[in-house]
Design goal:
585 residues; 2 domains; ABC transporter transmembrane region fold; four-stranded antiparallel beta sheet
């Protein structure tokens, strides 16, 4: 069916484990064969007993015991085959899901920054975790279940025709009837399953977003509004979940109704055939069991259909990530020169996040190696965008950004980014030791280099006062150390990477005056001999910059050093004086 088209792509992940999958099919066929033989073997002693009674003979216990032994062997064979099929399918599915998760992780690392700027973090996380788990569960249960059900139906139909052709033709009418019912209901319910998975992603995104900013919500008393928002997304999930489950749940009773009708018709017709000597009573008993061997798999198929529909919706969301356009790779990238000085030039650069809203137009400036450049301006002026372009998180729409005269578009992104060290306003540390977090800037750094970087960043003393020092584990939230210490550690991380160009984005905006002075001192050490770009709202921190770029609405409206710009009495002077007045107050 078209609604299950995305599930076909999962075959790519099953293919490497085809030997295991073939063994699964073999043992599944064996399971179905033993299951199909069970009613026929069960009917043999019944037929013999009925014949003995009808002829006034004593019961043929030798024959009965032999058939019972065969019945036990069939039952044992069925159990062992089913167990082996289950073990093998578990191994195949979990191995395939491991590969799928690996591909998703690798894909995420190849996606452009713009993807994460336009997609809710929690929704992306839901696709990687919840949706993959849904696919995994469906494959685990449904893959062998569907094969088993189809083969069981085929074997049961064959045995029916072996017993009596006319009765078999009447009985199998329920198969197309059940399929038509199932197809109709799947068509109606699939949209609701898609909406349900999207609603689940939205809810996860909402929860993740609010948990991240929980303290802010408490401060501003937004608990009630947040709860109302959660109720809204939760209601959407409940609404779509109910409709999907209710509609898909109609399949089982309707399919069973066709089985009951077939059972009644066969019971009546079969009784006449037994009295007429066309079939024996054991064959009638077996035939009725085969009806249930068709009905039960049909019921299983309808139950698995809901699971498959959820998996189809989930796999669609997963493959949407895998199908996202990646950052383009230029096969003719120019290799990095052996020596990089750090000269940076913007030549007629234009950029827009969306074509209808240009942000930067015809931007031009030059920075010499070792200079410190401060970028200031009101919110929305384009300061952070300038850094995004410099790091090639986004590519310019027109013009060129050059490092030592080389257009960064002609260099690989990894090479461009290897030239930069970055300290952001929001200090990011991961769960691990302090030493490992500093070493993140250079994974092969020695312990001596880690300590040296910490000393340069003025954080060595802080670390040594911590329990376990450099081996102290920072928790997942990073809240077992202060914000200032986190910021200093990110500076140490930038130091250890030994970048040619340094970017400091509002690095001191979230700390107190004492820590600001400490961080500023650390940054001054780090910036020595390096080309540095500093974005700062506190203009007092960038008075010693070699060049100050004043931006407004994507353009540089003033540039020069601190004294020159103050002497002009323009935008920068007004901005600086207003801040100075505020600080004085």
């Amino acid at each position: 069916m078209k609604s299950f088209a995305s599930l076909k792509r999962l075959g790519h992940y099953i293919k490497p484990y085809k030997i295991g999958f073939i063994l699964v099919l073999f043992f599944t066929v064996a399971t179905v064969g033993f299951n199909a033989a069970m009613p026929y073997v069960t009917g043999l002693p019944m037929t013999e007993i009925a014949r003995n009674v009808a002829n006034g003979e004593s019961l043929n216990f030798d024959y009965i015991w032999k058939t019972l032994i065969w019945l036990i062997l069939v039952g044992v064979g069925y159990t062992i085959s089913q167990l082996l099929a289950g073990l093998l399918i578990t191994n195949v599915v979990q191995s395939a899901m491991k590969d799928l998760r690996r591909d998703i992780d690798e894909k995420i690392n190849r996606l452009p920054v713009s993807y994460f700027d336009t997609h809710q973090q929690g929704n992306v996380l839901s696709r990687v975790t919840n949706d993959v788990d849904v696919v995994s569960g469906a494959m685990q249960q449904a893959l062998i279940g569907m094969v088993n059900a189809v083969l069981s139906i085929i074997m049961a139909v064959i045995m029916m025709f072996y017993i009596n052709t006319y009765m078999a033709l009447l009985a199998i009418i329920m198969i197309p009837a059940s399929l038509l019912i199932s197809r109709y209901i799947v068509t109606k319910s699939q949209n609701y399953f898609n909406s349900m998975q999207n609603a689940l992603g939205n809810m996860n995104g909402y929860v993740q977003e609010n948990m991240t900013g929980f303290s802010v919500l408490k401060v501003y008393g937004r608990e009630k509004e947040t709860l109302e928002g959660f109720k809204k997304v939760n209601h959407e999930l409940k609404r779509y979940g109910f409709k999907a489950s209710f509609i898909s749940g109609l399949m089982m009773p309707l399919v069973q109704l066709t089985a009951y009708l077939a059972y009644i018709v066969i019971a009546v017709l079969g009784s006449f055939y037994v009295m007429g000597g066309v079939i024996v009573v054991g064959q009638l008993q077996a035939f009725i069991q085969y009806i249930w061997q068709i009905s039960q798999p049909m019921g299983n198929i309808t139950q698995l259909s809901a699971l498959l529909q959820s998996a189809s919706a989930a796999s669609t969301r997963v493959f949407e990530i895998l199908d996202e356009p990646e950052e383009p790779i230029n096969t003719t990238d120019i290799p990095l020169p052996e020596t990089i000085e750090g000269n940076v030039t913007f030549e007629h650069v234009s950029f827009a996040y969306t074509p209808k809203k240009p942000l930067i137009e015809d931007l031009n400036f030059s920075v010499k190696a070792g200079q410190t450049v401060a970028v200031v301006g009101p919110t929305g002026a384009g300061k952070t965008t300038l850094i995004n372009l410099l790091m090639r998180f986004y590519d310019v729409n027109a013009g060129a950004i050059k490092i030592d005269g080389i257009d960064t578009k002609k260099m690989s992104r990894s090479d461009v980014r290897s030239l930069f060290g970055m300290v952001l306003q929001d200090a990011w540390l991961y769960e691990g030791t302090i030493a490992d977090n500093i070493r993140f800037g250079k994974l092969d750094a020695t312990d001596y280099e880690v300590v040296d970087a910490a000393k340069t960043a003025n954080v060595d003393h802080f670390i040594r006062t911590m329990p376990e020092g450099y081996d102290m584990v920072i928790n997942a939230e990073g809240d077992n150390i202060s914000l200032g210490q986190k910021q200093l550690m990110t500076i140490a991380r930038a130091v250890i990477s030994d970048p040619k160009i340094l970017i400091l984005d509002e690095a001191t905006s979230s700390v107190d005056t004492r820590l600001e002075a400490l961080i500023q001192k650390a940054m001054d050490k780090v910036m020595e001999g390096r080309t540095s770009f500093v974005i700062a709202h506190r203009l007092s921190t960038i008075r010693d910059a070699d060049l100050i770029l004043v931006m407004d609405q994507g353009s540089i409206i003033e540039q020069g050093n601190h004294e020159t710009l103050l002497a002009k009495g323009g935008f920068y002077a007004n901005l600086y004086n207003s801040q100075f007045s505020e600080e004085a107050e």
